[in-house]
Amino acid sequence: MPIRLSVQIDAFTYSDGTTALADIHLDVAKGEFTGILGANGSGKTTLLKVMDGLIKDFTGRVLLDGADVRQLHPRDIYRKVGLVFQNPDDQLFAHSVFEDVAFGPRNMGFAEDVVKPRVAAALASVEMAEYAGKNIHALSFGQKKRVCIAGLLAMGHEILLLDEPTAGLDPMGEYRMMELLTRLNQEQQVTIVMATHSVDLVPLFLHRLHILSKGRLVRGGTPEEVFTAPEELANVKLRLPHIAELIYRLKHDDRLPFTKIPLTVGEARRELVAALRKAD
Ligand SMILES: Nc1ncnc2c1ncn2[C@@H]1O[C@H](COP(=O)(O)OP(=O)(O)O)[C@@H](O)[C@H]1O
Ligand SMILES: [Mg+2]
């Protein structure tokens, strides 16, 4: 698959002297569903802002479909890439859901007869079609997050950057948000990069993940490649998914014969049943 975003950040330092990112190299291929996993303060939000062209004074280069983001007109970035902020209240500003989602396409110069179906399709994609006329302030936190995503989809974004899209949601809301993103990725071919610190959800949904620690990428690969040992994750202030931690302990401390460390309940169940049958 072609590379859509190619990120090389030698260093980025905030004006107060905090070096938030260093030695980052990261490619995002078309159609990928990628996670940036890191503890608080590891640089996730800063990295997404660089990828979206909001932070420009870094050393290195970011290429969007081969073009240097710093040389592109903002319009040409925003036609392809959009960032969903962690807090939807930082993103939403119009009165009604419809008006908010319509803002982007209107701003891009689309006529009203094009804007309307675009907004309707975007709201349908995030399962918010029936809320078009609703006041933004009357929405739940999770609904606001969906409206933010719809706003970017309505502009025709092919690459979505999401800053902790599951933060602040209840467990079912987290799961539904990940299902929504999976659907956009699979059915609408949206390339997705999401920042998260939620290790339990990641292995169920993401193709690839990159672990960020103190502004540096320390590991990358499939969830199976990245989630191997609890100690390594503890070093970067993360942990294994709970289910993986349990099997890891059973294997290493109790010497039960597991061949791999499963990351999901389904895989763990299969491994456990196989191990119990062997013990019979
Ligand atoms: N506007 C800012 N000015 C100075 N330092 C900042 C600013 N924003 C973030 N930082 C610092 O940069 C580092 C990375 O922050 P951030 O990208 O927000 O991490 P994360 O999103 O992973 O929690 C932290 O040390 C944070 O304190
Ligand atoms: Mg952040």
Mean pLDDT: 93
In terms of quaternary structure, what is this? Answer: single chain
Radius of gyration: 20 Å
* Major sheet strand order: 6-7-8-3-9-10
Summarize the biggest pleated sheet.
6 strands, mixed
Number of helices: 11
Q: How many strand segments?
A: 10
**β-sheet strand percentage:** 15-25%
Structure ligands? adenosine-5'-diphosphate, magnesium ion
> What level of helicity do the residues show?
25-40%
Content-based structural category: alpha/beta
Order of helices and strands: EEEHEEHEHHHEHEHEEHHHH
Please give a structural write-up.
- This protein has 280 residues and is an alpha/beta fold.
- It has a domain at 241-280.
- Helix content is 39%, strand content 22%.
- It is built from eleven helices and ten strands.
- Strands 6-7-8-3-9-10 form a six-stranded mixed sheet, with helices on both faces.
- Strand 1 (3-13) and strand 2 (19-29) form a beta hairpin.
- The longest helix has 17 residues, at 171-187.
- The protein is globular.
- The model has no long low-confidence stretch (mean pLDDT 93).
- It binds adenosine-5'-diphosphate (ADP) and magnesium ion (MG).
- Residues 14, 16, 18, 20, 38, 40-46 line the site of adenosine-5'-diphosphate (ADP).
- Adenosine-5'-diphosphate binds at residues 14, 16, 18, 20, 38, 40-46.
